[in-house]
Every structure is written in structure tokens, then in C-alpha cells.
Amino acid sequence: MKIGILECGRLPDEMSAQTGQYPPMFMRLLDGQGFAFQAWHVEDMVFPNSVSDADGWLVTGSRHGVYEDHAFIPVLEQFIRDAFAADVPVVGICFGHQIMAQALGGKVAKYAGGWAVGAQDYSFDTGPVRLNAWHQDQVITPPDGAQTVASNAFCAHAALLYPGRGFSVQAHPEFEDGVIQGLIDHRGPGVVPDPLLQQAQAGLGRADSRAMADRIAAFFKQHAGVRA
């Protein structure tokens, strides 16, 4: 089964040598699940020719807001709608979670409550999960038909299920501790309040993405089928 990774942004260059960019992070997260991968850097307007170029699509995080004026955003929104119409499953992470919601009629905004960075506890429909996060924007109003399947006190719509078509998560299951440390060092200062950065530092080692990796893999396999 081939998973297409739609790369919507890049992490700071200072981090690349140690952590890599989004595609290898997701390849590590889903390692051992029997997937093949191909990435398209959609932020640079490199898109697949068709939603049928992969068996499922994974939309990554980004430093951009989905409500900002960037050339790739409306094209990506249409691609997501086309994938849904063609019954090709889509998984979105952070920015991917948000742009799926916006593309399908939901509302995304910069949250007045500030930032969530580092390990966060979520109540999923399957039980408690602790994941690394790094965001201020979030889904405020989900699209019609989307089911909220995770939340916490900070983020009311922390994961959305679009039955049979999509699954999205606000947190970053692909972010290992080294990524959070890199963001604390290179993207946080002067942007994220120091007490939150200190909390993120103290929370290193607390997140566990295994259950979420299994859920993402199971979603793809259930809705696209595994083919040789």
C-alpha cells in the first residue's frame, strides 16, 4: 500500500541534520506497517497528478496558518475534497488537521488561549493518549459530518473522524523528543512564552505515539485496502 505524503512546510534548517523533515518522520512513525511512501512538497506547489497516485494521503504540519494567503492552500483544499469524493483516505496532522477541516467547511482560528507545546494529555474515544504538540491555531468549528474523537481542556476538537474518508489529529505523533527540543531551541524563543517552553522541556520523554501510529495505519488499511 502506497501512502502519499503531502509536505506542507519544513522545520528549521538547524534541525534537519538531526531530525530530518516531515516525510522521514512519518516513515519512522509508520515503520513496520507494510507501507511504501512517496512525498510531494506541496508548499512549493509540487502536487501529485491525481488523487489516485497513492492509496492514501497524509497531510503534514506547517509553520503557516491555513487562513493565510499562500498559493498552495486553495490547491491543497481542492485536492482534499477530490480525495474525499474519490473515497481515497486522508489523514491530517496539525496543519493537516486544520486544512482538512477548513477545506470541508469548518472554521480554524488562532486560539485566544495561546499555545500548546510539548507533551499533552488527550481524551480519545479509545482512552487517554499523551502526544507531543506544537500549535496555537486550532479547529474551532468542525465541518458537518465530522466527529470529534479527542479533546482536552485546551483543544476541544483535538482529533476528527470523517467516517470512511478521513482522520485528523491536532497533535504531532511523529514528533520525537529531539524534534520538540529543536523547536524549543530554534522556533520557540520570542514566540512561545518562556513558562510554556520550560514545561515542554520538563515534559520530554512523556509522550507515547505507538497507539496513534497503530490507529493511523489501521485507518489507512481499513479504508484503502492493502495491495501488493
Automatic annotation (TrEMBL):
Pfam family, one: GATase
Domain Glutamine amidotransferase residue range list: 73-176
Gene Ontology cellular-component terms listed: cytosol
Keywords of the record: Ligase
Thylakoid found in the keyword field: no
EC number(s) stated in the UniProt entry for this protein: 6.3.5.2
GO MF annotations in UniProt: GMP synthase (glutamine-hydrolyzing) activity
Keyword Lipid biosynthesis appears in the UniProt entry: no
Protein origin, superkingdom: Bacteria
PANTHER family xrefs: GLUTAMINE AMIDOTRANSFERASE YLR126C-RELATED
Protein name, as recorded: GMP synthase (Glutamine-hydrolysing)
Gene name tied to this protein: guaA
